[in-house]
Predict the structure.
Amino acid sequence: MVAPGNIGSYESRVRDFCWSIAEEELGIAGKNQVNIGYLCTDRNCRRGLGGKTAMYWENSNGQTKTYTFDQLRLATNTYAQLLKDLGVKPGDRVCLFMDRVPDLYIAFLGILKLGGIVQPLFSAFGEEALETRMADAETTAAITQMKHVRKLRRIREKLPTLKHIIVVDGNADTIKEGEVAFNLDNAKSVEHFDVYPSERETPSVLHYTSGTTGKPKGALHVHGSIVSQHLTSRWVLDLQPDDIYWCTADPGWVTGTSYGIIGAWSTGTTQFVFDGGFSSEVWYRLIDKYKVTVWYSAPTAIRMLMRDGDELVKKFKLTTLRHLVSVGEPLAAECVLWSQKVFGKAFHDSYWQTETGCILISNYPGMKIKPGSMGRPFPGITATVLDLKTHQPLSETGKVGLIAIKPGWPSMMRTYWNNSATYYGKFKNGWYICGDRASLDADGYFWFVGRDDDVINTGGHLVGPFEIESALIEHGAVAESAAVGTPDPVNMEVVKAFIVLKPGHVPSDDLELDIMNFIRKRLSPLAMPQHIEFVESLPKTRSGKILRRVLRAKEWNEPVGDLSTLEND
Ligand code: 6R9
């Protein structure tokens, strides 16, 4: 099948692949200097896109703003100059601690133009989460809003390297001594800024990712990452010149930077940014209003849209949507079928990690989708499944092993900040081990099983939570669920499912029995939950991932580990 647009079919792209395709498109082939800040702004102006809208922005109060690529160029220069005037040097870590206001997106690129390393942090982080990450990174400057500055003030004394706090909506009366009030709208716009001559290996972004236990790790990326972020944006997200693209991710999460900033603008795409929380109705209204064509979202949101029903969808004109992509968690077959039914378009799954910087495995546009499968490796990515013990590629299809990638793609992290031992520990037999389990089918499609540490061992049999949760979501009363292992005297552990019900359904013994019978037909006896607990909500990370380990730890009376990314703490 031929893929839409001009991105070529999967097979032909795999056959003829070379990363230099992206280098040519970005105009950096054969050049040493590569700067993400420049490529996302000035370069677009130089190729005639200066007057094109780069960003439509709206917040939950209905305030709106629009920036063209030329305005983005000037505004990013202005930020770069501000930091330079304050004495921030190339290589210094500058933390972004803001809601999804335009300054967040602009400052991100401004820091890169200066040669600084961006450290994006969720604005909802508490003091402890902030302090750990900023202490580890020895952050020099933080850019924040009045509503969040208090947290920084309270930890400032404990952060000796933190020289500057810039408050983007502060003024002389509201800021404290030692802080800088800066207002982009009133600032003198900087027409020319000498962009730092960064090269492919110059550090760019430091993204903290929270492991199961221990302290968060900072995955360090480089300017050359733009090569794979650009090409995956073109070929997986299928971004084309007339698109209105909406990436719903917060830049505190890698999806919000790799694809909510870099990929969106390296391709010169108009993107919509919403600074507000989740609401099915609001989201549909925004797609309708901004005529969104490409939508990059996550299973957690898709499940909530499903929960709110099909009737709501019909109230809005969503026919502009032409390509839907999902990331962050396994995408159940039921979600794919639902989106096909209500939007007339299937969500395309994409799999990757903070550490990998770009999409690794996906349902390439035009390729046959097998609902429930993550798809195939991006052209240029060599991915396989390794034996759990020997770490050799499995020759047998259908067998579960570890997802592994051949190192060498442009956006792979270069190290974990201050923690190179953990970084090197991620490689086995020349493969980068993702820490997730999957199986491969005869057509080369990957089927996700679970994170390594979420797999349930019942009577010596390994069961992945995704299989159970996928079956559960097919039941009409289930909005979402989490399957974990709970202690059992005979089988060591058995499956327990925590279930959130859809509106209009109440917990009862009858319903429990009905769900049990429903999934008995779909799953092997081993995967069948022996226990069901109805809950109001599931513990999730700020990027919307279900934190099964928190539920599991309670079952086993064990410590829960690092909770700094928990959504509702
Ligand atoms: C981009 C991002 C990475 C972990 C990853 C895996 C899970 C991401 C997935 C998926 C199944 C998908 N994950 N995409 N699992 N199917 N399509 O999410 O980065 O926050 O670092 O998380 O998320 O477990 O290892 P990050």
